[in-house]
Structures are given as C-alpha cells and as structure tokens.
Predict the 3D structure of the following.
Amino acid sequence: MTLEYLLKRIAQFFVIAFVAASINFFFPRMTGQDPIRQKISQLEMQGVGTSNEDTKGLVETYNRKFGLDKPLWQQYLTYLGDTARLDFGQSISNYPATVLSMLREAVPWTVGLLLTATLLSFVIGTLVGALMAWGNAPWLLRVVFPAFFTLSAVPFYLMGIILLYIFAFQFEIFPLFGGYGAQRIPEMTLSFWLDVLKHAILPAFSIVLAQIGFWALGMRSMMVTIQGEDYMLQAEAKGLKQPRIFFRYAMRNAILPQITGLALTLGTILSGAILVEVVFGYPGVGTVLLKAIQGYDWFVIQGVVFMVIVTVAFTMLLIDIIYPFLDPRITYRSE
C-alpha cells in the first residue's frame, strides 16, 4: 500500500465524517419541528401542566440554553466544532447529563454483547461452512446444520422474542430483561459479573442463532468455488496433507469475502441489533436511542446516528488497510 493511497483513504474518512455531521444537523431541522416544544407538549400530555406564559418562558429558556435561538449558520458552525471534539451537547430529557456521558455508559454494554455474539457466530459459521463444502464434516453437522440456514432468515428481534418466551416465560431459566438484576449494584465482583453473563445469554444467543447460518452459507459457497482453482490442484499433486490444504490453501483464500462481510457487520454493530436490546431491555445504545426517540431528545438521536455512521466508515478504512496483508495479490498502486 502506497502512502499516497493511505492518505487518500484517510482524507475520504474525514470527508464522510463531515458529510455525516452536516446531514445529521440539517435533516432534523428540515422537518420544521421544535424539539423543546415537543418535549413540553409531551410533559403536558403526561399531566405536568403549565400555563401559557410559563410554557413560553420555559421554551425561551431552553432554546437559549441549548443554543436553538441563534441563527442557523451559527448553530451549524458551533455544531461542527463541538462534533469535532465529540461534544454532542446535553440531553433534553436527562438534563444536565451530556450525550457523550450517556453513550459512554451504553457503548460498553452494546459492544460487549454484540461483538462477542458476532465473532462467535462468525468463527463457528465459517468453520462449519468450510467443513460442509470440504466433505469431511461430521454427520451430525450435515444433519442438524441445515436448520441454521433457515434461522438465518429470521430477524434478530424475532428470534429474541421466541427465546424470551421459551426460556424466560415458560421455563423461567433466564431473566426477562436488563443487564443485571434490579437488586444488584454494579461492582467488580465475581457474583456481579456472573449475573451480567446470565442476563446476556439470551440476547447473545438470539444473535448467534440468526447469524451462524448466514456465515456458514457464505463460506460454503466460496469453498465450492475455489476447489477447482489451479493452486488447489497443485497442492494436492504435491501430496500435501489434507489439514494443511484445508487451512493454508482453501480457507485462507475463501475467507477473504467473509472478512469483508465481518467488517461491515462490525461497523454496524451499534445499530444492527438495536431491537434485540429493546426486546430484552438491555442497557445499551439501542435502549438509549429508543428512549431518545420516545422523549424527542434531539441531541441524543444525533449523537447515536453520527457515531454509527463514523463507525462504519472507520471500519471500512481499517479493512482497506488490512486487506493487502491478508492477500498479497491485492495492491493499491497509482496508475
């Protein structure tokens, strides 16, 4: 990879971040809705009534506090400067909590759950798919695993509802919701982390069940494609052992498209399974976004959307850099 190409990709990443920030700023304002008035109207519907004069004064106070009384161009410049510092402002519903502090608390839960579940399903699905195409898969996998191909068409949240009904309502083996027990206080103890693990099993299992078939199907197709390649025939003609041919020649080449798919999946890890968190009441980014939408919390929604877009762009930047190391045939040279 040339330095020129690397600098070009980094520049593209910052352009994407700038465009994302701009879209994130202008789109909500194109609706013509006022988040402060919407929040106050919601409070009034909930029985928290105020007089017209109090409402007007409250709107003016909050607009001044959140900078919504300034000209649009000035709001835009301020927003770009704050976004560059990862300062997304303060939450309207949870004032004076900042959006960054809310995301800082939610992201570890989401990444811990979805990253583990995605990597687990990727490893199992890729290996099983390769074995099924190779023809040396145990008979149990050949009989049972086709069912996972069907499950790959089931959305995460629907799989979560099914598992929740069976293992939480019917058999009461796992808890219904939350990241840990309501009576627990977060602390660095073994009993607390075991409780966290118990609450994460069903959400993670719903993602794994829905993804294993997808990864296995993709890997199986690639393995079938590369088995007739010249380098495979040459490896067999040289008398190399089957495990070496399988891992060094077959899987190494067939797994490249899988890695691209994994990069895209990891890039959307903060949004791809948000509904799973909503179903299980898991304290991650999905729950934060749901509460922000319900509470007309403009700044929290902007923070989550921006973070998701930048995460996808950054992941694609990393995979572009890593690809030449995985496959020496891939080079980025200027013409």
Summary: Residues 109-295 form a domain with the MetI-like fold fold (CATH 1.10.3720.10).
